[in-house]
Predict the 3D structure of the following.
Amino acid sequence: MPLPSSGTLSISQIASEFSDTAPHSMSEFYRGGGLVPNSPSNTAVPTSGQIAIGNFYGAQNRIGLPLTITGNTQNYNLYTAVSANPGYSAGSTDITLTINPGVAVGSNSTGSYALSIPGSFNPGDTVTVVNNGTIIGRGGNGGNGGAAPNGGGGGGGTGGNAVYVSFPTVMTNNGTLAGGGGGGGGSSAYVYSTYPGNPKNPPTYTYISGNGGGGGAGYNGGSGGAKGPGNPGGAGGAGTLTSGGSGGAMGPGWAAPGGSGGGQGANGNAGTSGPFGINTTPNGSTGSGGTRGFYLVGNPYVTYPATGTRLGQVS
């Protein structure tokens, strides 16, 4: 709590604020000298020379630094935001990051985090996160459909991770932490034959490329996989913030649909091998569904006063 900004002020009050033990001397309280932080709230306190009790009006040992995310954003690095703030004093700042209700914090890549809290802070700092919104990784992309005549479907991409922590953090999660959903696998190339065929009228074969898998849920959502070459339809749908995209599909008698993308924190489904049309059989392997992302990497650093909704993997 800051010292009074006016009125009576004593050396014992100054000593109490800055945790000094008796006996007290004003020369102990130079700004930046070990007891008094060199921070914006303490600029009236000299670093050397003449010093008086009156220099300490409004001075404080600990600095509260509130930060708020009010709109959707991606790849938010808390240390970058804090270190650029003129109110930050390394080693004496209590940082509180609040994500407002309805706000999504995401990532533009499955290889980067939606929210990063690195170990760059001074050990004397404290970090608290109050999440009232959604922190989610990027969705994995859907796998591509296999190319005729015998190409296998592409595997769905892995979902991205939501939060990275390597500094002690209090996480009050009133909202959702979610790994990105894995992308759905693409379906294989198919062969379509006339039916039933006989020696005088032998069957004919048509090779059909596979359909794309759906993108996993996230912010951003994963993109849908492409249909195979020559396939007249069947690209996968993109994922949204909450849901995986549908796998691409065609009508009965043609290639089987691609797998659906996973929802928040859910694996993508493997590219399907059916149902088939009556004369249709796969001519390659189906793509596997992508793995879900982590809602948190760095769990040993985190304390939860409220756990909220947590979806996906954790380490």
